[in-house]
Design a protein that fits this description.
It is found in: Mitochondrion inner membrane. The protein has about 300 residues and is an all-alpha fold. It is about 70% helix and about 0% strand.
């Protein structure tokens, strides 16, 4: 759409950042549940389903226990979402010719480029977040569910410091390959699908779709892409979990992880947390598209003394 192509890079970064913060704040408890369900092994299940996990988390760790790892996400989701959305727009503009629409293949290429760019932030963010989110499950596994008590908090700063000290920068980027396997296909599905769904809501070729249509398109495209790549997300979560519970095996890379999960837990294990992930991603990207539609970034820049940046 012409309107979107005229949005400046600083405005895109602001829109993506604000959308990320608002979205994460709303759906983080479900993301925590997703991580814990994905890390459960057969025969050692603490949680039966999403609701059971939420109830037990609140009971044992308090309300704020549902937000373990949220500080990491809130800190890094701004650059992550900003890079993802801005990179996709950048590649779309450079792949288009004379203002003509993109083919589906070129839309997928643009999404692929966005997915590759974002993992610079996504991998360490997910690495730290998963350790914090899964700490409660590991503590609960060591005692009877009915006797769960508040668990000792762990610090993302301490985890990062220990990883850097023992493994160097590559410690923060453990699971990079699996993250690429998840985020590149996700972007290749999400961005073209959103563009086509959103186009269906345009009253005419020169008019934008209404904001509610942009929100619904973002939600539908996001949830579809999230479920499609959920097997890769399960593999990534398992690889990035440093602490293991009783009888939980370690993995030596993506291939080893996939083969062990398939052999010991079956193919349905790759769908663990798929519903939670859809519930997390749908509003996250729906909100992002609404931020673009409303133009929060442009408004902030217009009120700023540095609004020349948007020129």
């Amino acid at each position: 759409m012409a309107h979107q192509q005229q949005i400046s890079l600083p405005a895109k970064l602001i829109n993506g950042g604000i959308a990320g913060i608002v979205g994460v704040t709303c759906v983080f408890p479900i993301d925590l549940v997703k991580t814990r369900l994905q890390n459960q092994r057969q025969g050692h299940q603490i949680y039966k389903n999403m609701l059971d996990c939420l109830v037990k988390t609140v009971r044992s760790e308090g309300y704020f226990g549902m937000y373990r790892g949220a500080a990491v996400n809130l800190t890094l989701v701004t650059p992550e979402k900003a890079i993802k959305l801005a990179a996709n727009d950048f590649f779309r503009q450079h792949l288009s010719k004379n203002g003509k629409g993109l083919t589906v293949f070129k839309e997928m290429l643009a999404g692929c480029g966005a997915g590759i760019c974002q993992v610079v932030i996504t991998t360490p963010m997910e690495m730290l977040k998963i350790q914090l989110q899964d700490a409660g499950r590991l503590a609960a596994q060591q005692r009877m569910p009915a006797m769960m008590s508040p668990t000792k908090a762990v610090s993302a700063t301490q985890i990062a410091r220990d990883l850097l000290h023992t493994q160097g920068i590559q410690g923060l980027y453990k699971g990079l390959g699996a993250t690429l396997m998840r985020d590149v296909p996700f972007s290749m599905v999400y961005f073209p699908l959103f563009a086509h769904l959103n186009r269906l809501g345009q009253p005419s070729r020169d008019e934008s779709a209404p904001f509610y249509w942009a929100f619904l398109s973002g939600c539908l495209a996001g949830s579809t892409a999230a479920v499609a790549v959920n097997p890769c997300d399960v593999v990534k979560t398992r690889l990035q979990s440093l602490s293991k519970g009783a009888n939980e095996e370690s993995y030596n890379g993506v291939v080893d992880c996939v083969s062990k999960i398939m052999r010991k837990e079956g193919p349905f294990a790759f769908l663990k947390g798929a519903g939670c992930r859809a519930l997390v991603i749908a509003p996250l990207f729906g909100i992002a598209q609404v931020m673009y539609f409303i133009g929060i970034g442009e408004f902030i820049l217009d009120q700023s003394p540095f609004n020349y940046l948007s020129a």
